[in-house]
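Page 42, continued from yesterday. The earlier attempt failed because a stray header line got pasted into the input along with the sequence. Redoing it now with the clean sequence only.
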Amino acid sequence: MTERYTLKQSLYVRASMFTADELRRQKRLGLHEVNENVLEGLVNQRAKLEGQQNNIIRSLTTSLFLAFVAWSGGDIQIPGTGASLAEIPAFLELSLIAASFSVLMATCSFLSIQLYNAVIAAVASDVLAKNKLDPDLFSAAHTPTWLFLKYSKMAPVDGRKPGFRISTPGRVFYGALVGSISAILLSLWFLAIASIIYIAHSGLSDDVSGRGVYVICISMILASFISIAANFVAFTHEMDLSALEEIEPDRGDLSDQSKAGCNLK
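This time it went through. Structure tokens are written below.
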């Protein structure tokens, strides 16, 4: 009889559970174990995504500044040329589209980084389990990270009872540190979106092209809300325990065939 049960899980938890299941399946099939090279590759890829995210944030800041200059009637001379920003056709429209696209890409890159974190945590727990090491230390050794987010937790190492307990004032202080930074970053994200919407609403022309640009900007902003919500929203999933324990016959048959071929040789 098939044993099933349902649970709510976010995309982060889903990625972690799928990765852990693949590692278990790999061991049951007797395949080569995932080693530190795979883990290091995942960490390096996450570092590249974080670098791309920083570039996107710079692009967002620049495009928002230029959109504000064009909206307020200001003008800036382009270095090395005799032209100015006011002479560029549809400069305000282009700046708003660039800013909206940067907001969308920033939220998508943030979601990708969180999924990388889920996969890295699952792989690191498996690879480094034999050494009883903290998986976060491996990641921190290969890419810059905000370690204060880790050590401000009640239990810095997940699943391990802390040997050093912190006082209540300390927990309040570290909670205020993490909470205030999170609130500021979230406020800046909302401020960027509000600025784009306000400039687009008041600065774009009331013709077909202006309305088209406005719709494009709003569409990308709505998509960014969906992307940021994907980090937190959880849906009900049905788990089939028999499927989790099932060994794939194709790979097993292929392994048997390869062994038989070796014996014939």
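Notes: The two ends are 43 Å apart (CA to CA).
Reminder to self: strip header lines before submitting.
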